[in-house]
Design a protein that fits this description.
The structure holds two protein chains of two kinds. By secondary structure, chain A is mainly alpha-helical. Chain A is 71% helix and 4% strand. Chain B contains twelve helices and ten strands. The longest helix of chain B is centred in the middle third of the chain and has 21 residues. The chains are: A mainly alpha, B alpha/beta.
Chain lengths: 335, 297
């Protein structure tokens, strides 16, 4: 068993496409939950809307930047649609509506026709859309695969990773500027106690709506980097369904909610750990340390998630504030 | 508090304007700041609030008292936009408040505190205070991104917040999370934070509840100082000593309606009020069981 190559591949994942697009989406979810206290359990819905908005536009010959804009506008509309009826109600209603709306969006993308209208022509139905990313790939300045001393990426991945991490850094800067402002203060006040904020003349409904839209935009950006990287968008649960939402949640909680770098580091660690457990388990199997009657190659894929779940439970038990969190904050009785 | 001695004379002048006011429910005041008409709030079959007419005099401290379930807090909620009445109109300083949401009411200068204190736990004390300031340029997302736009205003707000923290003896807790404050300190913080909005009418819902006697004294001083700087104060309170000490006018609610109004001396002797608190049965011939109760109290 080659620990060197396992380590190298793990480090690669640390900086890979997955970590980058997870980080973007997690930054969005952190704005929702970490800073505003909004329970969004449909973040994959925002990713899907962004991804499909981009893919359908590109497929129909729209220039890349305009296509990105269309994806972002679609995500904004989705956020407004979700927020308008629920943000005046108790927090739990948003949770219920987001989880349902994200599934509705995904299933609509998978549908072949909606109300007699042939949508498959645009969305590709259950096969999704493939090979739309050429306008993005054409901009690739790399001529071959990229080998730094600790990471190596194929030509395609190197370009996606570059754009992805550049966006992550810009997003972190944006969140930093936004959260140190009086606007960010109102956001956090609403998280702590909405009624107190309203009693001081702050429009809680409006600020929650702004947060929902803003976080949704980062979710959409994450979805775009994801599908641009693999040049394919699929309406499967693994890609753009509830499991993805919960992975993003894990990344946010792992890093520490309401912290600037929490979602970024959380995403990197999540991606790397997933790769590490996978490679290690497979290595043990090849060596015969884990007998095949106990676990076969297919099962490894699932077992690593079991291990991740176990790890998350241990984290919650021993470091509930996440990596960047402040234990003092958690010790306060919030109400 | 030694500072209380001069305020006693102020108490008499502030209450003076009310000497000619009729001591009946809904009596007209010389200069009402808040006027409510026909406010009715029903919860299913129960009519929680049924206030036919109420005027709150500007620049004095009005106590709102009444037994539990009298509708005092509900009335507060209705006036401040946290709840909507089924019927009724009210205006605040000449502005009709009927359809305004809570944050608009607050921006108009009618600010409330809560019975269960709402400290914003995971914000520092100073951040709690700065939140209270109104008209902040940086509360718009896009302007907020550019610090030069709101930096100067922020420094002004911070100076004002620090002055208030000093006055409310919270300066040493400036950087602590509000969640670490004691119950009494939270009451102080909530009052100070409400002052950051520069309200003309401040409505305090049980400001002394759960506060130790020593702190009660300083809270009382603070409430009086609010009036002395020209603000109108309405507060809900159960402790009659407190009511006697600081109120210029007392409004009594029972079962949703206003049953009496007057200075506290008159209220204490008012038969309707005594009936509301103790029940009407004490007029009936006492039986042996009730004699024990009377003896105990």
């Amino acid at each position: 068993m080659d620990w060197g190559s396992i380590l190298a591949e793990t480090v690669n994942k640390f900086f890979g496409v997955q970590a980058a697009y997870f980080a973007l989406a997690a930054i969005g979810l952190n704005i929702h939950f970490g800073y505003t206290g909004l329970l969004n359990f449909g973040h994959a819905g925002f990713m899907a809307i962004g991804a499909y908005g981009l893919a359908i536009s590109l497929q129909n010959g729209v220039p890349l930047l305009l296509a990105v804009l269309i994806g972002l506008l679609a995500a904004t509309a989705f956020a407004l649609l979700l927020g308008a009826p629920t943000l005046r109600l108790r927090a739990d209603y948003l949770a219920i509506v987001t989880i349902a709306a994200a599934e509705i969006a995904r299933i609509l993308f998978r549908a072949t026709e909606i109300a007699g209208f042939n949508t498959r022509e645009y969305t590709g139905g259950s096969t999704g859309i493939n090979g739309f990313a050429d306008p993005f790939k054409d901009l690739n300045p790399y001529t071959g695969s990229v080998d730094l001393w600790f990471v190596s990426f194929s030509r395609n991945d190197a370009w996606t990773v570059t754009v992805g991490w550049a966006l992550v850094l810009l997003s972190v800067l944006f969140v930093h500027l936004a959260m140190r402002s009086p606007w960010g203060r109102v956001l956090k006040a609403v998280r702590e106690d909405e009624d107190a904020a309203r009693a001081l003349g702050k429009n809680a409904y409006s600020i929650k709506m702004q947060s929902l839209v803003l976080g949704g935009l980062f979710g959409a950006l994450g979805g775009m980097i994801f599908v641009l990287g693999q040049s394919s968008v699929q309406p499967t649960p693994q890609d753009l369904g509830a499991p993805k939402t919960f992975f993003i949640w894990v990344a946010v909680i792992l890093g520490g909610t309401g912290k600037l770098w929490g979602p970024v580091i959380g995403s990197m660690i999540f991606s790397a750990l997933l790769q590490f457990t996978d490679l290690t388990l497979r290595g043990f199997q090849e060596e015969g340390i884990i007998p095949t009657w106990f676990m076969d190659g297919v099962q490894v894929g699932q077992v690593r998630f079991i291990l991740m779940g176990l790890g998350l439970m241990l984290l919650m038990a021993f470091r509930p504030q996440g990596i960047f969190g402040d234990k003092r904050e958690l010790a306060l009785d919030v109400r | 508090m030694s500072a209380d001695t001069p305020t006693d004379t102020v108490t008499s002048t502030a209450a003076d304007v009310l000497t000619d006011v009729q001591q009946v429910p809904g009596s007209p005041k010389p200069d009402p700041m808040l006027t409510a008409d026909g406010i009715i709030r029903r919860f299913g079959g129960l009519t929680a609030v049924d206030v036919r007419h109420l005027e709150i005099q500007r620049g004095v401290i009005t106590a709102l008292i009444g037994p539990n379930g009298a509708g005092k807090t509900t009335f507060f909620n209705l006036m401040t936009g946290f709840d909507t009445p089924d019927e009724g109109t009210w205006n605040f300083d000449g502005v009709a408040m009927g359809k305004l949401p809570a944050h608009q009411v607050a921006r108009n200068g009618m600010v409330r505190t809560f019975q269960l204190t709402k400290a914003l736990s995971r914000l520092s004390v100073i951040e709690n205070m700065k939140l209270g300031a109104g008209h902040q340029k940086g509360e718009n997302l896009f302007r907020g991104l550019v610090k030069p736009i709101w930096g100067a205003q922020e420094r002004e707000i911070e100076a004002r917040a620090d002055a208030l923290l000093d006055r409310f003896k919270l300066a040493h807790m400036r950087e602590e999370f509000a969640g670490t404050l004691s119950g009494g300190q939270r009451k102080l913080l909530e009052m100070a934070r409400a002052l950051m909005t520069d309200p003309s009418l401040i409505m305090l819902d049980e400001p002394m509840a759960g506060v130790n006697p020593a702190l009660t004294q300083s809270l009382l001083g603070h409430v009086k100082s609010l009036r002395d700087e020209g603000r109108t104060v309405v507060f809900v309170e159960h402790d009659m000593d407190v009511v006697r000490d600081i109120s210029d006018w007392v409004v009594v609610m029972a079962e949703g309606s206003i049953i009496a109004e007057g200075p506290h001396e008159a209220i204490g002797a008012n038969q309707t009020v005594i009936d509301a608190y103790l029940g009407t049965s004490h007029d009936a011939p006492l039986d042996l069981g009730e004699i024990d109760v009377e003896g105990a109290s």
